[in-house]
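Slide 14.
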Amino acid sequence: MAVHVPLTMEAQNEAANLMVTSKNMLNPSNGEPIVAPSQDMILGCYYLTRMDEGEFQYAYASGDDAMMAYDNDVIKLHTPIRLRTPEGIIETTYGRYLFNQVLPENLRFVNETIGKSAAKRLLSRAFDVLGGEETAYLADAIKNLGFKYATLSGLTVSMADMIIPDEKQDFVKEGEDKIKEIQKAFWKGYITEEERYVQSLQVWSAVKIRIEKEMKKYFKPSNPIYSLVDSGARGNW
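Slide 15: predicted structure.
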C-alpha cells in the first residue's frame, strides 16, 4: 500500500484543512454519516443496549444506584428497569444508561437498541448539533464502546444456532416438482433452452425467498445469529 507524505506547504494545508475526518463526515450523495460504527462495533453497541423481555421489577433514583445494583449482580445489562433522569422517570436498561454516558448531555437520553441504522441516525443528529469535529470524537467513543462490549459479550456461533425451518423440505419438494414439469416441457420442444434456464432460476429464487421468510420466526433474540443480523453487523434477513 502506498504512503503519501504531504511535503509541500500546499499539500500540508490540504491534509490539515480539507482531508481531515471532521471535514468529511457526511456522504455528499445522500447526507448520511460516512464515519460510523460497523460490524463488531455495531454488535457491541447492540449487545449493550438491547432489552430483555419481562416486567420492570426494579426502579432506581440515579445511574449510580443502578451501577451498584449491577455490581452486586441484582440486575444485568439487559434487565428492564425504571430510572430517574433529568427528563423524568424512564423505562430503560443499565446497558442503555452506560451507552448514554459517552454521549454529550444535549444528545441524551437515547433509549433504544442501537443497531446500524440507529447509530447512523444518532451521528447524523450529532453532526447537526455538535458540528464535524465533536462528532468525529463521538464516533470514536462509540466505536471504542462497541469493541469493548463485543468482546465482553462473548457472542459466538455454533451449529446448534443454525436452525433449519421445518417447512424447508416441503418448499424444496415443491420446487423440484416444478422443475420436473419445466424439464418435460423442454424435452417435448415446448420451450427453448434459454426459457428452461430462466424458468428454473425463477422457481429456485421463489423457494429461497419462501425459506428466508420462514427463518426469522425460528430465531429468538437470545440466538447469536439473531443479534448479528438484527443489529446490522452481519448479513440480513
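Speaker note: The first helix runs from residue 9 to 17.
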